[in-house]
Amino acid sequence: MHAYSYADCLLKLPNVELLAIYDQDRDRGGKAAQTYQTQYFHDQDLFLTQDLDAVIICSENHLHKEMVLKAAQAKKHILCEKPISTTIEDANEMIRACEMNRVILQIAFPVRFSTPIKQLKAMIEKGELGEIIAMRTTNRGQNPGGWFIDPKRSGGGAVLDHTVHMVDIMRWYLGKEVSEVYAMVDSFFHQIEIDDAGLLTLEFENGVIASHDASWSRFSEYPTWGDVTIEVIGTKQSIKVDAFKEHFRMFQSGSKSLHHIFFGNDMDFGLIKDFVECVEQHRQPSITGKDGLKALEVALAAYESAKIKKAIQL
Amino acid sequence: MAIVLGNLNKIELGDDDKNMVIIHSEKDIERYKENKAKIMVISKMKNLELFKGSGDKIYIPSTMIKREWKDKAYVYFELEQYAFFQKLREILTAEMRKKGVLRFRRLVNSELDQSIILSDFYAFSTFFGECEVVQVKRTSNTKGPIHVILAATFSENVLAHLEYTFLPQEKETVALEWSGVKNILELNSNEMDPLLSNEQTNQPLDYSLSSIIKNSHLLNEDLIGKWDQLNQMLFGNLLWEV
Protein backbone atom coordinates (compact mmCIF):
# COMPACT_ATOMS: atom_id res chain seq x y z
CA MET A 1 0.00 0.00 0.00
CA HIS A 2 2.84 2.42 0.88
CA ALA A 3 5.18 1.28 -1.91
CA TYR A 4 4.24 4.12 -4.28
CA SER A 5 4.49 6.77 -1.57
CA TYR A 6 7.93 5.49 -0.50
CA ALA A 7 9.10 5.38 -4.13
CA ASP A 8 7.96 8.99 -4.57
CA CYS A 9 9.90 9.95 -1.44
CA LEU A 10 13.07 8.23 -2.72
CA LEU A 11 12.90 10.24 -5.91
CA LYS A 12 12.89 13.47 -3.91
CA LEU A 13 16.25 12.64 -2.35
CA PRO A 14 19.18 13.81 -4.48
CA ASN A 15 21.58 11.16 -3.22
CA VAL A 16 19.30 8.20 -3.90
CA GLU A 17 18.76 6.16 -7.03
CA LEU A 18 15.81 3.81 -7.38
CA LEU A 19 17.63 0.99 -9.15
CA ALA A 20 15.15 -1.85 -9.31
CA ILE A 21 11.68 -3.08 -8.38
CA TYR A 22 10.84 -6.68 -7.53
CA ASP A 23 7.23 -7.81 -7.56
CA GLN A 24 5.63 -11.25 -7.85
CA ASP A 25 2.86 -9.58 -9.79
CA ARG A 26 4.33 -9.01 -13.28
CA ASP A 27 1.71 -6.55 -14.39
CA ARG A 28 1.90 -4.37 -11.26
CA GLY A 29 5.68 -4.55 -11.06
CA GLY A 30 6.14 -3.76 -14.74
CA LYS A 31 3.88 -0.72 -14.56
CA ALA A 32 5.62 0.54 -11.43
CA ALA A 33 9.04 0.16 -13.11
CA GLN A 34 7.73 2.17 -16.06
CA THR A 35 6.34 4.88 -13.78
CA TYR A 36 9.61 5.20 -11.87
CA GLN A 37 11.80 4.60 -14.94
CA THR A 38 13.69 1.73 -13.45
CA GLN A 39 14.21 -2.02 -13.96
CA TYR A 40 11.62 -4.63 -13.09
CA PHE A 41 12.54 -8.07 -11.70
CA HIS A 42 10.24 -11.02 -11.38
CA ASP A 43 12.98 -13.17 -9.82
CA GLN A 44 13.74 -12.18 -6.24
CA ASP A 45 17.15 -13.86 -6.17
CA LEU A 46 18.22 -12.11 -9.35
CA PHE A 47 16.90 -8.81 -7.98
CA LEU A 48 19.08 -9.24 -4.89
CA THR A 49 22.23 -9.79 -6.98
CA GLN A 50 21.97 -6.17 -8.14
CA ASP A 51 24.27 -3.55 -6.68
CA LEU A 52 21.76 -2.22 -4.14
CA ASP A 53 22.63 -0.61 -0.80
CA ALA A 54 19.20 -1.21 0.63
CA VAL A 55 15.73 -2.55 -0.06
CA ILE A 56 12.30 -1.42 1.10
CA ILE A 57 9.89 -4.31 1.66
CA CYS A 58 6.21 -3.48 1.16
CA SER A 59 4.82 -6.93 0.45
CA GLU A 60 1.87 -8.77 1.95
CA ASN A 61 2.57 -9.30 5.64
CA HIS A 62 3.09 -13.06 5.41
CA LEU A 63 5.94 -12.54 2.93
CA HIS A 64 7.93 -10.14 5.12
CA LYS A 65 9.89 -12.96 6.76
CA GLU A 66 11.08 -14.64 3.56
CA MET A 67 11.96 -11.33 1.93
CA VAL A 68 13.87 -10.03 4.95
CA LEU A 69 15.82 -13.29 5.34
CA LYS A 70 16.83 -13.26 1.67
CA ALA A 71 17.73 -9.57 1.66
CA ALA A 72 19.78 -9.96 4.85
CA GLN A 73 21.66 -12.90 3.33
CA ALA A 74 22.36 -10.74 0.27
CA LYS A 75 23.77 -8.07 2.66
CA LYS A 76 21.16 -5.45 1.81
CA HIS A 77 20.01 -3.02 4.47
CA ILE A 78 16.27 -3.28 5.02
CA LEU A 79 13.30 -1.04 5.69
CA CYS A 80 10.40 -3.41 6.34
CA GLU A 81 6.76 -2.32 6.28
CA LYS A 82 4.79 -2.85 9.49
CA PRO A 83 3.80 -5.20 11.01
CA ILE A 84 7.24 -6.76 11.11
CA SER A 85 5.68 -10.20 10.56
CA THR A 86 2.61 -12.24 11.40
CA THR A 87 4.17 -14.27 14.23
CA ILE A 88 6.59 -13.63 17.09
CA GLU A 89 8.79 -16.53 15.96
CA ASP A 90 9.15 -15.06 12.47
CA ALA A 91 9.99 -11.63 13.87
CA ASN A 92 12.70 -13.07 16.11
CA GLU A 93 14.18 -15.02 13.19
CA MET A 94 14.21 -11.88 11.04
CA ILE A 95 15.95 -9.84 13.74
CA ARG A 96 18.56 -12.57 14.27
CA ALA A 97 19.23 -12.88 10.54
CA CYS A 98 19.83 -9.15 10.19
CA GLU A 99 22.15 -9.11 13.21
CA MET A 100 24.11 -12.07 11.89
CA ASN A 101 24.49 -10.49 8.45
CA ARG A 102 25.26 -7.07 9.97
CA VAL A 103 22.56 -5.29 8.02
CA ILE A 104 20.15 -2.64 9.26
CA LEU A 105 16.58 -3.72 9.92
CA GLN A 106 14.32 -0.71 10.31
CA ILE A 107 10.56 -1.00 10.68
CA ALA A 108 8.30 1.44 8.82
CA PHE A 109 6.45 3.34 11.53
CA PRO A 110 6.06 6.71 9.76
CA VAL A 111 3.94 8.21 12.56
CA ARG A 112 7.18 8.82 14.46
CA PHE A 113 7.98 11.41 11.81
CA SER A 114 4.77 13.42 12.15
CA THR A 115 5.75 16.92 13.30
CA PRO A 116 3.13 17.25 16.10
CA ILE A 117 3.89 13.69 17.30
CA LYS A 118 7.59 14.67 17.52
CA GLN A 119 6.71 17.95 19.25
CA LEU A 120 4.82 16.06 21.94
CA LYS A 121 7.78 13.70 22.38
CA ALA A 122 10.02 16.75 22.96
CA MET A 123 7.57 18.19 25.50
CA ILE A 124 7.51 14.88 27.39
CA GLU A 125 11.30 14.73 27.45
CA LYS A 126 11.48 18.28 28.82
CA GLY A 127 9.12 17.25 31.64
CA GLU A 128 6.39 19.66 30.58
CA LEU A 129 3.65 17.08 31.19
CA GLY A 130 5.04 15.90 34.51
CA GLU A 131 4.72 12.20 35.18
CA ILE A 132 2.66 10.42 32.51
CA ILE A 133 -0.23 8.50 34.05
CA ALA A 134 -2.40 7.52 31.07
CA MET A 135 -2.71 7.69 27.31
CA ARG A 136 -5.53 7.45 24.78
CA THR A 137 -4.92 6.67 21.14
CA THR A 138 -6.88 6.07 17.95
CA ASN A 139 -5.99 4.76 14.52
CA ARG A 140 -9.13 4.36 12.47
CA GLY A 141 -9.29 4.17 8.73
CA GLN A 142 -11.02 2.68 5.73
CA ASN A 143 -11.08 -0.99 4.85
CA PRO A 144 -8.05 -1.35 2.56
CA GLY A 145 -9.49 -4.51 0.93
CA GLY A 146 -7.31 -6.82 -1.17
CA TRP A 147 -4.89 -9.04 0.73
CA PHE A 148 -5.45 -7.02 3.93
CA ILE A 149 -8.76 -8.84 4.43
CA ASP A 150 -7.29 -12.27 3.66
CA PRO A 151 -6.23 -13.68 7.06
CA LYS A 152 -3.65 -16.01 5.49
CA ARG A 153 -1.79 -13.17 3.81
CA SER A 154 -2.31 -10.36 6.34
CA GLY A 155 -2.18 -12.31 9.60
CA GLY A 156 -4.91 -10.11 11.08
CA GLY A 157 -7.38 -7.34 10.31
CA ALA A 158 -7.84 -3.82 11.62
CA VAL A 159 -6.44 -4.64 15.05
CA LEU A 160 -3.12 -5.80 13.61
CA ASP A 161 -3.08 -3.11 10.93
CA HIS A 162 -3.95 -0.20 13.22
CA THR A 163 -2.56 -1.16 16.62
CA VAL A 164 1.15 -1.42 15.93
CA HIS A 165 1.59 2.26 14.96
CA MET A 166 0.17 3.65 18.18
CA VAL A 167 1.70 1.03 20.46
CA ASP A 168 5.03 2.03 18.94
CA ILE A 169 4.36 5.70 19.70
CA MET A 170 3.32 4.95 23.29
CA ARG A 171 6.43 2.81 23.86
CA TRP A 172 8.54 5.57 22.32
CA TYR A 173 7.02 8.22 24.57
CA LEU A 174 7.30 6.16 27.75
CA GLY A 175 10.44 4.14 27.16
CA LYS A 176 8.54 1.27 28.80
CA GLU A 177 6.98 -1.97 27.62
CA VAL A 178 3.35 -3.03 27.67
CA SER A 179 2.81 -5.56 30.45
CA GLU A 180 -0.91 -6.30 30.11
CA VAL A 181 -3.36 -6.32 27.19
CA TYR A 182 -7.12 -6.55 27.41
CA ALA A 183 -9.06 -6.35 24.14
CA MET A 184 -12.48 -6.62 22.59
CA VAL A 185 -12.32 -7.46 18.89
CA ASP A 186 -15.17 -7.84 16.43
CA SER A 187 -16.23 -7.42 12.82
CA PHE A 188 -18.96 -4.79 12.51
CA PHE A 189 -18.49 -2.55 9.53
CA HIS A 190 -17.95 -4.81 6.52
CA GLN A 191 -19.08 -8.23 5.40
CA ILE A 192 -15.58 -9.69 5.79
CA GLU A 193 -14.11 -12.71 7.51
CA ILE A 194 -11.59 -10.70 9.45
CA ASP A 195 -11.77 -8.21 12.32
CA ASP A 196 -12.54 -4.58 11.52
CA ALA A 197 -12.98 -3.20 15.06
CA GLY A 198 -11.08 -3.44 18.30
CA LEU A 199 -10.78 -1.64 21.61
CA LEU A 200 -7.65 -2.31 23.62
CA THR A 201 -6.90 -1.49 27.24
CA LEU A 202 -3.20 -1.60 28.03
CA GLU A 203 -1.07 -1.38 31.12
CA PHE A 204 2.64 -0.61 30.92
CA GLU A 205 5.29 -2.02 33.20
CA ASN A 206 5.43 1.29 35.13
CA GLY A 207 1.67 1.31 35.80
CA VAL A 208 0.65 3.73 33.04
CA ILE A 209 -2.73 2.75 31.60
CA ALA A 210 -3.88 3.35 28.03
CA SER A 211 -6.78 2.83 25.70
CA HIS A 212 -6.60 2.31 21.95
CA ASP A 213 -9.26 2.30 19.26
CA ALA A 214 -8.25 0.41 16.11
CA SER A 215 -10.73 0.02 13.29
CA TRP A 216 -11.61 0.15 9.61
CA SER A 217 -14.77 2.04 10.50
CA ARG A 218 -14.33 4.96 8.10
CA PHE A 219 -16.38 4.70 4.91
CA SER A 220 -15.54 6.27 1.56
CA GLU A 221 -17.89 9.25 2.07
CA TYR A 222 -16.15 10.22 5.35
CA PRO A 223 -14.18 13.46 4.84
CA THR A 224 -10.78 11.82 5.31
CA TRP A 225 -9.22 8.36 5.13
CA GLY A 226 -9.00 8.11 8.91
CA ASP A 227 -7.09 9.36 11.90
CA VAL A 228 -4.03 9.06 14.10
CA THR A 229 -4.53 10.67 17.51
CA ILE A 230 -2.94 10.44 20.93
CA GLU A 231 -3.77 12.13 24.21
CA VAL A 232 -1.17 11.98 26.94
CA ILE A 233 -2.40 12.64 30.48
CA GLY A 234 0.32 13.87 32.79
CA THR A 235 0.44 15.07 36.37
CA LYS A 236 1.22 18.63 35.17
CA GLN A 237 -0.91 18.79 32.04
CA SER A 238 -2.56 16.73 29.33
CA ILE A 239 -1.83 17.18 25.63
CA LYS A 240 -3.74 15.84 22.66
CA VAL A 241 -2.19 15.43 19.23
CA ASP A 242 -4.11 14.85 16.04
CA ALA A 243 -1.50 14.01 13.39
CA PHE A 244 -3.85 15.04 10.56
CA LYS A 245 -5.38 18.10 12.19
CA GLU A 246 -3.77 20.53 9.76
CA HIS A 247 -6.35 20.50 7.01
CA PHE A 248 -8.72 22.54 4.92
CA ARG A 249 -12.37 21.64 5.07
CA MET A 250 -13.32 21.59 1.40
CA PHE A 251 -17.03 21.45 0.60
CA GLN A 252 -18.12 20.26 -2.81
CA SER A 253 -21.37 19.35 -4.46
CA GLY A 254 -21.82 15.58 -4.74
CA SER A 255 -22.23 12.48 -2.62
CA LYS A 256 -19.07 13.31 -0.67
CA SER A 257 -19.60 16.95 0.06
CA LEU A 258 -16.84 17.46 2.64
CA HIS A 259 -13.17 16.62 2.11
CA HIS A 260 -10.33 17.22 4.54
CA ILE A 261 -7.33 18.43 2.57
CA PHE A 262 -4.24 17.78 4.68
CA PHE A 263 -1.38 20.28 4.49
CA GLY A 264 0.83 19.09 7.37
CA ASN A 265 4.23 17.47 7.04
CA ASP A 266 4.78 14.32 4.96
CA MET A 267 5.62 11.64 7.55
CA ASP A 268 6.46 9.06 4.85
CA PHE A 269 9.17 11.38 3.59
CA GLY A 270 10.52 11.75 7.12
CA LEU A 271 10.69 7.97 7.46
CA ILE A 272 12.45 7.42 4.12
CA LYS A 273 14.92 10.26 4.67
CA ASP A 274 15.76 8.87 8.11
CA PHE A 275 16.32 5.37 6.73
CA VAL A 276 18.57 6.64 3.96
CA GLU A 277 20.62 8.65 6.46
CA CYS A 278 20.85 5.60 8.67
CA VAL A 279 22.30 3.56 5.79
CA GLU A 280 24.66 6.36 4.78
CA GLN A 281 25.95 6.91 8.30
CA HIS A 282 26.02 3.21 9.26
CA ARG A 283 24.14 4.05 12.45
CA GLN A 284 21.58 2.15 14.47
CA PRO A 285 18.10 2.50 12.99
CA SER A 286 15.78 4.88 14.81
CA ILE A 287 13.06 2.22 14.74
CA THR A 288 14.53 -1.24 15.27
CA GLY A 289 13.36 -4.76 14.60
CA LYS A 290 12.75 -5.03 18.34
CA ASP A 291 10.38 -2.05 18.13
CA GLY A 292 8.48 -3.92 15.43
CA LEU A 293 8.47 -7.09 17.52
CA LYS A 294 7.17 -5.40 20.68
CA ALA A 295 4.33 -3.69 18.78
CA LEU A 296 3.43 -7.00 17.13
CA GLU A 297 3.36 -8.73 20.52
CA VAL A 298 0.67 -6.34 21.73
CA ALA A 299 -1.48 -6.75 18.61
CA LEU A 300 -1.29 -10.54 18.78
CA ALA A 301 -2.02 -10.47 22.51
CA ALA A 302 -5.13 -8.40 21.74
CA TYR A 303 -6.45 -11.21 19.54
CA GLU A 304 -5.69 -13.77 22.23
CA SER A 305 -7.34 -11.63 24.91
CA ALA A 306 -10.50 -11.18 22.83
CA LYS A 307 -10.63 -14.92 22.22
CA ILE A 308 -10.40 -15.95 25.86
CA LYS A 309 -12.07 -12.77 27.23
CA LYS A 310 -9.27 -12.23 29.72
CA ALA A 311 -6.31 -9.92 30.07
CA ILE A 312 -3.02 -11.23 28.71
CA GLN A 313 0.18 -10.65 30.67
CA LEU A 314 3.24 -10.05 28.52
CA MET B 1 -44.23 21.79 44.37
CA ALA B 2 -41.21 20.22 42.69
CA ILE B 3 -38.06 20.23 44.76
CA VAL B 4 -34.83 19.69 42.88
CA LEU B 5 -31.49 18.94 44.47
CA GLY B 6 -28.85 20.06 42.03
CA ASN B 7 -25.62 21.78 41.14
CA LEU B 8 -26.40 25.45 40.54
CA ASN B 9 -23.34 25.82 38.34
CA LYS B 10 -24.77 23.37 35.86
CA ILE B 11 -28.49 24.06 35.86
CA GLU B 12 -29.44 26.56 33.19
CA LEU B 13 -32.36 28.44 34.75
CA GLY B 14 -33.60 30.18 31.59
CA ASP B 15 -37.40 30.23 31.23
CA ASP B 16 -37.93 28.40 34.50
CA ASP B 17 -36.84 31.29 36.71
CA LYS B 18 -40.31 32.88 37.11
CA ASN B 19 -41.65 29.70 38.68
CA MET B 20 -38.60 28.95 40.71
CA VAL B 21 -36.84 29.84 43.93
CA ILE B 22 -33.31 28.90 44.93
CA ILE B 23 -32.68 27.72 48.46
CA HIS B 24 -29.25 28.28 49.92
CA SER B 25 -30.06 27.86 53.60
CA GLU B 26 -32.70 26.63 56.04
CA LYS B 27 -33.83 30.24 56.56
CA ASP B 28 -34.62 30.55 52.87
CA ILE B 29 -36.91 27.55 53.14
CA GLU B 30 -39.03 29.17 55.82
CA ARG B 31 -39.22 32.36 53.78
CA TYR B 32 -40.31 30.64 50.62
CA LYS B 33 -42.70 28.02 51.99
CA GLU B 34 -45.62 30.34 51.33
CA ASN B 35 -44.26 31.36 47.95
CA LYS B 36 -46.30 30.37 44.92
CA ALA B 37 -43.22 29.14 43.08
CA LYS B 38 -43.67 25.76 41.44
CA ILE B 39 -40.05 24.67 41.65
CA MET B 40 -37.61 24.93 44.51
CA VAL B 41 -33.92 24.33 43.76
CA ILE B 42 -31.81 23.15 46.66
CA SER B 43 -28.05 22.83 46.59
CA LYS B 44 -27.52 20.88 49.83
CA MET B 45 -28.79 17.43 50.74
CA LYS B 46 -29.32 18.43 54.41
CA ASN B 47 -31.89 21.02 53.34
CA LEU B 48 -33.64 18.46 51.18
CA GLU B 49 -34.09 16.18 54.18
CA LEU B 50 -36.58 18.73 55.57
CA PHE B 51 -38.98 17.91 52.75
CA LYS B 52 -39.04 14.17 53.28
CA GLY B 53 -42.68 13.11 53.62
CA SER B 54 -43.94 16.58 52.60
CA GLY B 55 -45.83 15.26 49.61
CA ASP B 56 -43.77 17.41 47.24
CA LYS B 57 -42.15 15.80 44.22
CA ILE B 58 -38.48 15.47 45.01
CA TYR B 59 -35.74 15.14 42.39
CA ILE B 60 -32.25 14.00 43.30
CA PRO B 61 -29.18 13.45 41.11
CA SER B 62 -28.14 9.86 40.48
CA THR B 63 -24.87 10.49 42.28
CA MET B 64 -26.91 10.85 45.51
CA ILE B 65 -28.94 7.66 45.23
CA LYS B 66 -29.77 6.24 48.67
CA ARG B 67 -32.17 3.44 49.51
CA GLU B 68 -33.87 5.61 52.16
CA TRP B 69 -35.36 7.69 49.34
CA LYS B 70 -37.01 4.64 47.77
CA ASP B 71 -40.45 5.50 46.33
CA LYS B 72 -40.09 9.02 47.79
CA ALA B 73 -37.96 10.66 45.10
CA TYR B 74 -37.24 10.81 41.39
CA VAL B 75 -33.71 10.30 40.15
CA TYR B 76 -32.10 12.18 37.29
CA PHE B 77 -28.94 11.12 35.47
CA GLU B 78 -26.85 14.10 34.42
CA LEU B 79 -25.91 12.51 31.09
CA GLU B 80 -29.59 12.14 30.20
CA GLN B 81 -30.11 15.87 30.73
CA TYR B 82 -27.59 16.98 28.12
CA ALA B 83 -29.25 18.02 24.86
CA PHE B 84 -26.59 16.17 22.85
CA PHE B 85 -27.24 12.92 24.70
CA GLN B 86 -30.97 13.19 24.04
CA LYS B 87 -30.19 13.66 20.34
CA LEU B 88 -27.76 10.73 20.39
CA ARG B 89 -30.44 8.53 21.90
CA GLU B 90 -32.89 9.68 19.22
CA ILE B 91 -30.46 8.89 16.38
CA LEU B 92 -29.31 5.54 17.71
CA THR B 93 -32.77 4.41 18.76
CA ALA B 94 -33.80 4.81 15.11
CA GLU B 95 -31.19 2.21 14.16
CA MET B 96 -32.81 -1.20 14.26
CA ARG B 97 -29.70 -3.01 15.35
CA LYS B 98 -27.15 -0.85 17.04
CA LYS B 99 -23.73 -2.13 16.08
CA GLY B 100 -20.45 -0.31 16.53
CA VAL B 101 -17.87 1.24 18.79
CA LEU B 102 -18.56 3.87 21.46
CA ARG B 103 -15.82 5.99 22.98
CA PHE B 104 -16.93 8.29 25.75
CA ARG B 105 -14.63 10.69 27.55
CA ARG B 106 -15.35 12.88 30.54
CA LEU B 107 -13.01 15.34 32.14
CA VAL B 108 -14.50 15.85 35.60
CA ASN B 109 -13.65 18.93 37.63
CA SER B 110 -13.86 17.18 40.98
CA GLU B 111 -12.03 14.64 43.07
CA LEU B 112 -12.48 10.96 42.19
CA ASP B 113 -16.19 10.09 42.36
CA GLN B 114 -17.21 6.57 41.37
CA SER B 115 -20.88 7.49 41.29
CA ILE B 116 -20.30 9.68 38.21
CA ILE B 117 -18.94 6.69 36.29
CA LEU B 118 -21.72 4.45 37.55
CA SER B 119 -24.31 7.06 36.65
CA ASP B 120 -23.09 7.44 33.05
CA PHE B 121 -22.83 3.69 32.66
CA TYR B 122 -26.41 3.31 33.83
CA ALA B 123 -27.56 5.95 31.34
CA PHE B 124 -25.80 4.24 28.43
CA SER B 125 -27.18 0.86 29.39
CA THR B 126 -30.74 2.21 29.13
CA PHE B 127 -30.48 2.35 25.35
CA PHE B 128 -27.52 0.14 24.45
CA GLY B 129 -29.11 -2.79 26.26
CA GLU B 130 -27.73 -5.54 28.45
CA CYS B 131 -24.20 -4.81 29.52
CA GLU B 132 -21.34 -7.07 30.39
CA VAL B 133 -18.65 -5.15 32.21
CA VAL B 134 -15.37 -6.54 31.21
CA GLN B 135 -12.68 -4.44 32.79
CA VAL B 136 -12.13 -1.31 34.89
CA LYS B 137 -8.65 0.17 35.19
CA ARG B 138 -7.56 3.21 37.15
CA THR B 139 -4.29 4.94 37.71
CA SER B 140 -2.62 4.43 41.04
CA ASN B 141 -0.92 7.81 41.33
CA THR B 142 -1.34 9.63 44.60
CA LYS B 143 -0.85 13.12 43.17
CA GLY B 144 -2.31 14.82 40.11
CA PRO B 145 -5.26 13.60 38.10
CA ILE B 146 -6.83 10.17 38.38
CA HIS B 147 -7.69 8.43 35.13
CA VAL B 148 -10.17 5.56 34.78
CA ILE B 149 -10.76 3.33 31.75
CA LEU B 150 -13.90 1.24 31.68
CA ALA B 151 -14.15 -1.33 28.87
CA ALA B 152 -17.53 -2.90 28.24
CA THR B 153 -19.74 -4.63 25.73
CA PHE B 154 -23.45 -3.98 25.38
CA SER B 155 -25.80 -6.53 23.82
CA GLU B 156 -22.80 -8.17 22.12
CA ASN B 157 -22.97 -5.60 19.31
CA VAL B 158 -21.43 -2.57 20.96
CA LEU B 159 -17.85 -2.24 22.17
CA ALA B 160 -17.33 0.67 24.55
CA HIS B 161 -14.59 2.54 26.30
CA LEU B 162 -15.77 5.03 28.92
CA GLU B 163 -12.90 7.14 30.23
CA TYR B 164 -12.69 9.64 33.05
CA THR B 165 -10.05 12.04 34.22
CA PHE B 166 -10.76 13.56 37.63
CA LEU B 167 -9.04 16.89 37.96
CA PRO B 168 -10.62 19.58 40.19
CA GLN B 169 -9.11 22.63 38.49
CA GLU B 170 -10.02 21.74 34.92
CA LYS B 171 -13.00 22.78 32.83
CA GLU B 172 -15.55 19.99 32.64
CA THR B 173 -15.53 18.39 29.18
CA VAL B 174 -17.37 15.58 27.49
CA ALA B 175 -16.25 13.99 24.21
CA LEU B 176 -18.08 11.20 22.48
CA GLU B 177 -17.52 9.19 19.33
CA TRP B 178 -19.82 6.60 17.89
CA SER B 179 -18.51 4.54 14.97
CA GLY B 180 -21.46 2.67 13.54
CA VAL B 181 -22.10 1.01 10.20
CA LYS B 182 -21.88 3.84 7.66
CA ASN B 183 -22.73 6.17 10.51
CA ILE B 184 -20.22 8.13 12.58
CA LEU B 185 -21.08 10.63 15.31
CA GLU B 186 -18.48 12.89 16.90
CA LEU B 187 -18.86 15.46 19.67
CA ASN B 188 -16.58 17.47 21.89
CA SER B 189 -18.34 19.84 24.28
CA ASN B 190 -15.41 22.28 24.14
CA GLU B 191 -15.87 22.68 20.41
CA MET B 192 -19.66 22.94 20.55
CA ASP B 193 -20.13 25.92 22.82
CA PRO B 194 -22.29 28.37 20.83
CA LEU B 195 -21.24 31.26 23.05
CA LEU B 196 -17.64 32.34 22.71
CA SER B 197 -16.54 35.00 25.16
CA ASN B 198 -13.79 35.82 27.58
CA GLU B 199 -16.01 34.47 30.36
CA GLN B 200 -15.78 30.73 30.82
CA THR B 201 -18.99 29.21 29.50
CA ASN B 202 -19.85 25.56 29.08
CA GLN B 203 -23.24 25.62 27.45
CA PRO B 204 -23.25 22.06 26.00
CA LEU B 205 -22.90 20.75 29.57
CA ASP B 206 -25.65 22.92 31.07
CA TYR B 207 -29.15 21.51 31.48
CA SER B 208 -32.54 22.84 32.42
CA LEU B 209 -34.91 22.28 35.32
CA SER B 210 -37.64 21.27 32.89
CA SER B 211 -35.31 18.61 31.47
CA ILE B 212 -34.66 17.25 34.95
CA ILE B 213 -38.38 17.04 35.68
CA LYS B 214 -39.12 15.45 32.30
CA ASN B 215 -36.23 12.98 32.27
CA SER B 216 -36.28 11.60 35.80
CA HIS B 217 -37.07 8.11 37.03
CA LEU B 218 -38.93 7.05 40.15
CA LEU B 219 -36.41 5.65 42.60
CA ASN B 220 -38.13 2.29 42.91
CA GLU B 221 -36.91 -1.21 43.67
CA ASP B 222 -36.13 -1.90 39.96
CA LEU B 223 -33.90 1.14 39.66
CA ILE B 224 -32.14 0.44 42.95
CA GLY B 225 -31.67 -3.18 41.93
CA LYS B 226 -30.10 -2.29 38.60
CA TRP B 227 -27.96 0.41 40.22
CA ASP B 228 -26.66 -2.09 42.78
CA GLN B 229 -26.03 -4.69 40.08
CA LEU B 230 -23.97 -2.28 37.96
CA ASN B 231 -22.12 -1.05 41.02
CA GLN B 232 -21.20 -4.64 41.80
CA MET B 233 -20.05 -5.19 38.19
CA LEU B 234 -17.92 -2.07 38.08
CA PHE B 235 -16.47 -1.78 41.52
CA GLY B 236 -17.50 -4.88 43.44
CA ASN B 237 -19.26 -2.46 45.79
CA LEU B 238 -15.86 -1.27 46.96
CA LEU B 239 -15.08 2.37 47.46
CA TRP B 240 -11.83 3.30 45.80
CA GLU B 241 -9.23 5.04 47.85
CA VAL B 242 -8.19 8.38 46.42
Polypeptide structure, described:
- Chain A has 10 helices and 14 strands.
- Chain A is an alpha/beta fold.
- In chain A, the strands form 4 sheets. Chain A has a 7-stranded mixed sheet. Chain A has a 3-stranded parallel sheet with strand order 3-4-5, sandwiched between helices. Chain A has a two-stranded parallel ribbon with strand order 1-2.
- In chain A, helix 1 crosses helix 9 and helix 8 crosses helix 10.
- With about 240 residues, chain B is an alpha/beta fold.
- In chain B, the strands form 3 sheets. In chain B, strands 3-4-1-5-6-14 form a 6-stranded mixed sheet. In chain B, strands 8-9-10-7-11-12 form a 6-stranded mixed sheet. In chain B, strands 2-13 form a two-stranded parallel sheet.
- In chain B, helix 5 crosses helix 7.
- The model of chain B has no long low-confidence stretch (mean pLDDT about 85).
- The interface between A and B is medium-sized, with 36 and 32 residues.
Order of helices and strands of chain A: HEHEHEHEHEHEHHEEEEEEEHHE
Give the strand order, joined by hyphens, for the main sheet of chain B.
3-4-1-5-6-14
Number of strands of chain A: 14
Largest interface: A-B, 36 and 32 residues
- Sequence stretches where pLDDT stays below 50 over 5 or more residues of chain B: none
Q: Which H/E pattern describes the elements of chain B?
A: EEEHEHEEHHEHEEEEEEHEH
Helical residues, percent of chain A: 25-40%
The secondary structure category of chain B is alpha/beta
What's the overall average pLDDT of chain B, rounded? 87
